[in-house]
Amino acid sequence: MPCTAGPDVPLSVGGGGGTDYAGAMPSGSMDYASGEFPSIAGVTSESDGGVANKYSIQLNSNRFTTSACSDATDPICSGWQQFVYVTNGSSGSIFIQSWLVHHGNPCPDASWHVKDNSCWKNGDALSVGPIAITNLDTISLEGILDGLASYVVLFVGNDVYQASSTLLPDLAHRWTSANFNVFGAGGGSQATFNSGSTIAVRVSTIDGYGAWPNCVRSSLTAETNNLSLVDSSCCSIDQSVTYVEGNVPGTLPPFCLTKHLGSIFGY
């Protein structure tokens, strides 16, 4: 599969639209997805609003039709679920955040909060210590659907953390794509990496049939980072998609198959 260098233009990853890659099932739905950063190079610092090591790692579903929108005041209401690790630089936590996008006010019940024209709520949160951005390649985040519950699982080296939430109705058979990345800590903020940073991102999916996900350009979260996608770098490899982002001055290096990671990251 041929690959080309990305444009020498700083396009922030995240923030909605086609500013990130996602792994999309060719048909059917998934009940599991995970994300990791298999290689990083040149990453020495990151900040959000001037606070070092303040960021979020998000594994996000596509938006989907859900019966939870049955009482919505807006007919375009849809469900959306986020599996999240967030740190303020001194402490952190994992949790699942559920959204009814464009539901309108009032929300279904008192457990939901209003944000603009949407409703959101968090599942149970588990405290996790802060993780330095230089250890990004030791982290993986999983989203799992099981019965009436959903789970977020964070791996940091040999340590494992898990939190759960009630499953948002209809996600189990309508989860068709997964987006994963490192972003600002919340409220539409940006994770700002030092110049010269390059990160490989991998999103894996399981649908019960062993299908390989397709690379699609998609981002639904409001948060961003200051990295640029390496255009045409996303490749589907054995139930996962892998791509590269960075802010290296000049033309970013081309990337395609996993075997070429060494030429980018120096091993």
Summary, kept brief:
This protein is mainly β. 2% of the residues lie in helices and 47% in strands.
What does this structure look like?
There is one protein chain. The chain has 1 helix and 23 strands. The chain has a domain of 179 residues: Jelly Rolls. A hairpin with a 2-residue loop joins strand 14 and strand 15. Strands 2, 7, 8, 9, 10, 11, 12, 16 and 19 form a 9-stranded antiparallel β-sheet that branches. Strands 3, 4, 13, 14, 15, 18, 21, 22 and 23 form a 9-stranded antiparallel β-sheet that branches. Strands 1-20-17-5-6 form a 5-stranded mixed β-sheet, with no helix packed on it. Helix content is 2%, strand content 47%. It has 267 residues and is mainly β. The two termini are 22 Å apart.
Discrete helix count: 1
The CATH level-2 architecture of the domain at 29-207 is identified as: Sandwich
Number of strands: 23
**Gap between N and C termini:** 22 Å
List descriptors:
single chain, 267 residues, mainly beta, Jelly Rolls, nine-stranded antiparallel beta sheet, 1 helix, 47% strand, disordered N terminus
Give a topology summary:
Layout (H helix, E strand, L loop, with lengths): L12 E2 L2 E8 L7 E5 L3 E2 L4 E3 L2 E2 L1 E8 L16 E11 L3 E10 L11 E3 L2 E5 L3 E3 L10 E8 L2 E8 L2 E8 L10 E7 L6 E4 L4 E9 L7 E6 L4 E2 L2 E2 L5 E2 L3 E7 L14 H5 L2
Parallel strand pairs: 17-20
Antiparallel strand pairs: 1-20, 2-16, 2-19, 3-13, 3-18, 4-18, 5-6, 5-17, 7-8, 7-16, 8-9, 9-11, 9-12, 10-11, 13-14, 14-15, 18-23, 21-23, 22-23
